[in-house]
Design a protein that fits this description.
Chain A: It comes from Pseudomonas aestuarii. The structure holds two protein chains of two kinds. Chain A is mainly beta. Chain A has one helix spanning 3-19; strands at 26-31, 34-40, 49-54, 57-63, 73-77, 83-89, 100-104, 107-113. The model of chain A has no long low-confidence stretch (mean pLDDT 84). The chains are: A mainly beta, B mainly beta. At the A-B interface, β1, β2, β5 and β6 of A face α2, β1, β2 and β5 of B.
Chain lengths: 128, 150
């Protein structure tokens, strides 16, 4: 095999790895102030969590930190991948600059506020 | 616009992608140990079990719990993990919309049968980053030993 083919093979397997991710369970709630997004990512420490906003797409990725002793063999596994990934498209009424993110005990808590102008307000009707 | 009509966070395409990924996770993971007791997928918490010469390692992926309310017991060679996870649903004051509610809520219990050489007296449990890691040591007499030839 030539070098070129080798590289192509490596790239293919890399993209396959990227495809194979765990899909974290989420809760999405909305109230008048904004959106609350809760994401279950057990095993992900703060430094392995990545949040990105690109063109109104919110991308959440995280790696499970290995916590396995040496010479341990897997006997039974329900969680068989070590990377979480999930993306959401955001609408323009959400203020992505003011997102508040907290990670606690494997749950990511994201608060995405609405722009002030997008919040509901009552319009007064004046009597002419 | 359509997203808000159809209640799919991220739109319909993202929803198909999610379904596809779920199917892949169910069927396309050869090579790793599978289920010995056929369990419904999505049981909470997900468990991984590992074995080393000196101990049995159990990992329960249980995020968002209060460690003091987790109950771990060993009885007749069965290790059980139980507890309850509260719903994250905020109080509804008339303006709340729920777009996704996939996260588990409610009481749970999962049981693992331990091998015969597990020592129920030597158990350690840690809860970190939402993963409960239980180490059950094997009985010393059962551990591999090198025998000196005289």
């Amino acid at each position: 095999m030539t070098d070129k083919q080798d590289k192509a093979a490596v790239r293919r397997s890399e993209s396959a790895d990227e495809l194979q991710t765990l899909l974290p369970a989420v809760d999405v709630f909305e109230d008048k102030d904004g959106i609350l997004l809760l994401v279950d990512m057990p095993g992900v420490p703060k430094d392995k969590l990545e949040l990105r906003i690109d063109n109104d797409t919110l991308l959440i990725e995280g790696n499970i930190a290995p916590d396995t002793p040496e010479n341990m063999q897997a006997v039974y596994a329900e969680v068989r991948l070590s990377r979480y990934r999930r993306a959401f498209s955001l609408s323009s009424d959400l203020d992505t600059a003011r997102i508040d993110a907290q990670l606690r005990d494997g749950v990511l808590n994201l608060r995405i506020p609405k722009h002030a102008y997008a919040q509901p307000r009552k319009i007064e009707v004046k009597v002419a | 616009m359509y997203e808000s009509l159809l209640n799919f966070p991220g739109g319909l395409l993202a929803e198909f992608e999610r379904l596809q990924q779920e199917l892949q996770q169910e069927f396309a993971n050869p090579g790793r140990p599978g289920s010995i007791r056929a369990l419904a997928s999505g049981a909470f918490p997900a468990l991984n079990v590992g074995s080393s010469p000196s101990a049995i390692e159990i990992y329960a992926f249980a995020p968002g719990l209060d460690a003091s309310k987790l109950d771990v017991q060993i009885d007749h060679g069965l290790l059980s993990i139980s507890g309850e996870r509260e719903s994250a649903l905020p109080q509804d004051n008339g303006t709340l919309s729920t777009y996704a509610n996939e996260r588990f809520a409610g009481p749970f219990k999962r049981t693992v049968s331990l091998p015969g050489d597990a020592d129920p007296e030597k158990v350690q449990a840690h809860y970190r980053n939402g993963v409960l890691h239980i180490t059950v040591a094997r009985q010393e007499s059962a551990q591999p030993k090198r025998i000196d030839i005289q």
